[in-house]
Amino acid sequence: MDASSGKGAIDLTRLRDLSERSMRRAEESLRSLLGQPLRLTICAVHTLPASTLSALAEDAECASLVGLQSRITGQGNGRVVMLFPMPMVRRFLQALVGSSTDAGPLTEMEQSAILELGNILASSFLSGLGDLLGRRLLHSATEIYLENIPQLIRDVHALFHAFGSKALVVHGVLEDAEKHVQGRFFVLSEVATLEPIVHSPVGR
Fold this sequence. Notes:
The structure is a single chain. It contains six helices and nine strands. It is α+β, with helices and mostly antiparallel strands and 204 residues long. It has one domain (9-200): Chemotaxis protein chec (3-Layer(aba) Sandwich), CATH 3.40.1550.10. The strands form two sheets. Strands 2, 3, 4, 5, 6, 7 and 8 form a seven-stranded antiparallel β-sheet that branches. β7 and β8 (181-189) form a beta hairpin. α1 runs antiparallel to α4 and α3 (86-97) packs across α4 (108-133). The two termini are 16 Å apart. Mean pLDDT is 81; it is low at 1-7 and 200-204.
């Protein structure tokens, strides 16, 4: 459904379709990397006032999360934010580095492995969406947040404040079917980043 029906309406239905196609590309990259039956699907695509990020705020209350953040660069501006519960992170590490530790802080090698996973996930999604948009969407090196998830949420709120009163959110869910664990994947963007396809004149 479009955010409005007038001139310049934001075509969220079309954006969701392109995002789902890009998610499939990212899912394939992740499956190839991990060799695991994971599913990455779209949960929602919507505009959002800068003052409310309820899904992120809810997750921030969970103590056992690993957060990742990449900046969208190139012909775009925004963030890719990923939040993974620790059981999912441990499962990733089992596939990536053969780690079998179930407790304790992540080692430097484990953090590097998770950062690389985040880079691949962000790159696959953004390159796929950029191809569909005809835009060059890149990402910065991913940053990791371990015990400072609230700081990640504050950083995102500050970004939305800089964007103004509206922003676009693509919200994906990463599901580990075997363990019944879910992670979250957010693309948080100013509207202008996706303007070539989400603004549709009347009668077109």
